[in-house]
Amino acid sequence: MCSTEHRYMRCTLRWTLLLVTFFALSACSSAPSHELVDKPEFPKTNQQLFDLSSTRIPLYSDLISLTPKQTQDIQEFVSQTDIALLPKHKQVYEYLSKKLVNFNYEGENYLASEAMLKGGGNCMSLALLTYAVAKHLGVEAVFQVMHTEPLLLEVTSNIAVTSDHVRTFLYEEKDTAQSSKGFFFSGRSYRVLDYFPGRYDRSGKIIDENQFIAMLYRNLAADSLLEGNLDLAYQLLISGLSYDEEYAPLINMMAIVHRRQGDEVTAERIYQYGLEVTDSKISLLSNYYFLLSKQGNTLAAISIKAQLLQLEDTSPYDWYLIGKDALSREDFKSAEIYLNKFLNNTPYYHKAYFDLAKAQYALGKKTSATTSIQQGIELAKQPASQNLYKAKLAWLERE
User: Fold this and answer.
1) Which of 29, 222, 281, 395 lies most in the core, judged by the most C-beta atoms within 10 Å?
2) Which UniProt key words apply to this protein (predicted)?
């Protein structure tokens, strides 16, 4: 299926990341829960394939630590007469609102202290800095996934790098009566930090602190994977999985580093584990299909592809990437299905209509291809895009 290994890495300045389910489970005290009994364990990794001595892996404390000078700056700010009267969560909001006015997007993953020192970084760096300042002032920070317009940043060594986006809620202190009502129903005051909101952003799931930390390690591991440093990527993935071993991007990348080191058996076990424990299956299925196809395991590959074709998932990024990949391999029927799944959830992304039209035309669906290009023209904002689509449309209409 997909020869491109998908994962979320850097986020652009409209930001963040996908995925996790944050829900409360309740069970009758008289009925034992089968969730814990039946939950599979993460497969044993093949540690001997990797050199673990080369680099010190940043700890959680390294990620969120601020320098003494930086914490002094925070304290001086919140000690101002007009700021000191505010609740703590509003103090964090005011500090960051002023501190980040000239924040420079550099597309780099920085620790919180580095992001503040450099006045730059990617959106994950922004979220981490927010988290660090909130932690310093004793404020609860909650993160929410935002589904935004997809942006394919680069494809290198068969690795697709895409953007993703989160926003941060800063909550006032909770009292006993509020503590059990959840974030949105407690009646607590909050401030929202969404540094680069997009016109088409859609609210996604709330993610807890563990997954947020896992996402930070995911970004760092993705950098290492992109650079070809599998030893460092492996160690960062281990760190991330210690916070959330059911986080799909970490599982996917762990399988990838094992496959690239030649251990396809362990890679396959990891894919199978991921498909059992996570709801986010698109990348896992597409990369597992690639592994099985590479092995010549045709029947199993066909079964995995059938699952992918039938899958319904509202997170749009992966559908677009595997649709593009199917198009490049001239698997036009699959490309049409994947791109339609993508557009069902992201109907404003004009480039996908052009890709869909290519697949439809190759399948002999001239009328559908014409309609797709017309939709792309209506949505395209840039004259260059509009002119390209109009030229393709004129050519199709002459056929």
Assistant:
1) 222
2) Signal
Q: pLDDT tens digits, residue range 234-258?
A: 999 999 999 999 999 999 999 999 9
In whole angstroms, how large is the CA radius of gyration of the chain? 23
For 79, the 3-state DSSP assignment is: coil
Parse the chain into domains and list their residue ranges.
Answer: 5-23+40-279, 312-399
Within 8 A by CB and 6+ apart from 214, the residues are: 240, 241, 243, 244, 247, 250
Domain 312-399 part of CATH 1.25.40.10: yes
Q: Token pair of 321, please?
A: 């990437």
Eight-class DSSP state of 47: G
- The pair of three-digit structure tokens given for residue 108, joined into one six-digit string: 């780099």
Matching residue, tokens 């990949």: 325
Q: Which tens digit of pLDDT belongs to each residue from 120-149? A: 887 788 889 999 999 999 999 888 877 666
Asked whether 14 and 196 are in contact (CB, 8 A), the reply is yes
d(CA 386, CA 11) in angstroms, rounded, equals: 27
